[in-house]
Amino acid sequence: LSLGHGDGDSGSPLGWVYTCQMTARVEPRAEKEYFWCDAPSAEAFERVHRLASAVPTADPEARRRTVDDLLALGVPLAVPFLADLLHVPDADTVSAAARALCTIDEPAGRRYRFTMRRKSDIYKALTRGLEQVDPDAPRGRPGEWTDLFDGARPTVPLAEKGPFRVEAVDGAPVFTNGHRTGQTLFDYRTGDRCLVALDFTHHGPGQAGLVFGWAGRWCRLRLPFGVPEPPHRDGNALEGVLNSPRGRYGVTAGEAHRAVVLVDGPKVRVVLDGKRVLDLSDEVVGPGRVGLSAWGKDTRLEVTRLRVFEAGDSASLAKALAGLPGQGR
Fold first, then answer.
1. Has residue 198 got a pLDDT over 60?
2. Cα–Cα–Cα angle for 229, 234, 239, nearest 5°?
3. What percentage of the chain carries pLDDT values higher than 90?
4. CA separation for the pair 74, 96 (Å, rounded)
5. What would the pLDDT profile of 11-62 be if each residue is shown by its tens digit?
6. Distance (Å, rounded) from C-alpha 50 to C-alpha 41?
7. Alpha carbon of 143 to those of 62, 119, 140, 146: distances in Å?
8. Contacts of residue 237, Cβ cutoff 8 Å, sequence gap at least 6
């Protein structure tokens, strides 16, 4: 059963007819799966549906050609059909489908990998697919801290996508947005288990904070400062407020603070100045990327140090967290 969301042009399966009746004598058994993406054009929907519905079950070469065709289209609508091909008894097709899925939609690749974590062959194929996405981006070594900004200069190449820059504040170098709004992404990819430690000072009203995941995409984790609301969730985006006038954990303007974010696969913990602010589980699978954001013309975020610890397992992650000065349990 294929359900389509899009326009009703002549190329779509139903045109402008939205209702139909069917009767059949069947006893269906199925797993429910819901996949939502931006509405594709009628032409894209028709092409994906035609390719996916014509996949031969006993011809590995034809299956791999279908994977190549879906990858060439490159639309998110192809993702669930590529996910179906992860279950065929053909290792080459599984590997190709995993690579194509991760290339089209990296967050979807992480979600499917978490869902399939008990099926080792599919898990490994998706892991390889994720590793091939943007392979030239700087990566840290497991068990080591990587300074993105060490208090003097950025030590990892920065993507030119935002307003942050190194400035001298009271004679000391800081990474600051200089009262400008916008977003910057570091050209740095994190693994599924990492610690992010941010030493910062927040000036003025407005919002600023850390962003994990894929900026501009729905699958991300945002940890803002300066939002007068309690922690909340918004769809698949998770937001934890570190500066709430009504909360226990306040960020005092003009004073130095440390925010530590622990990401352990599907688990996330936020620690501010040694106190737990937020604990979430089964919500995210690795942050993917790290960035900083600032909103509001009067907001100024000064970062004196930003570093990431890569961990290969939960034990080394917990050890690194315990080794940070002043961290609560």
1. yes
2. 50
3. 14
4. 14
5. 555 565 555 566 667 666 656 666 667 777 888 888 888 887 776 667 888 8
6. 14
7. 43, 27, 9, 10
8. 218, 219, 220, 221, 222
Q: Say whether pLDDT at 244 is over 80.
A: no
CB atoms inside a 10 Å sphere around CB 105: 24
State the amino acid at position 224 in one-letter form. Answer: P
Q: Is the dihedral of CA 170, 176, 178, 179 positive or negative?
A: negative
Q: What is the pTM of this model?
A: 0.68
Which tokens belong to 299?
């907001």
pLDDT at position 95 over 70:
yes
SS (H, E, C) the chain: CCCCCCCCCCCCCCCCCCCCCCCCCCCCCCCCCCCCCCCCCHHHHHHHHHHHHCCCCCCHHHHHHHHHHHHHHCCHHHHHHHHHHHHCCCHHHHHHHHHHHHHHCHHHHHHHHHHCCCCHHHHHHHHHHHHCCCCCCCCCCCCCEEEEECCCCECCCECCCCCCEEEEECCEEEEECCCCCEEEEEEEECCCEEEEEEEEEEECCCEEEEEEECCCCCCEEEEEECCCCCCEEECCEEECCCCCCCCCCCCCCCCEEEEEEEEECCEEEEEECCEEEEEECCCCCCCCEEEEEEECCCCEEEEEEEEEEECCCHHHHHHHHHHCCCCCC
* pLDDT-derived band at 5, boundaries 50, 70, 90: low
For residues 309-315, average pLDDT: 89
Q: What does the alpha-carbon distance between residue 272 and residue 281 come to, in Å, rounded to a whole number?
A: 18
Give the pLDDT band of residue 216 (cuts 50, 70, 90): very low
Residue 20 has which token pair? 């139909």
* Token pair in block for residue 209: 């904070």
What residues form DSSP beta bridges with 307?
A: 147, 197
Q: Which two tokens stand for residue 52?
A: 């996916």
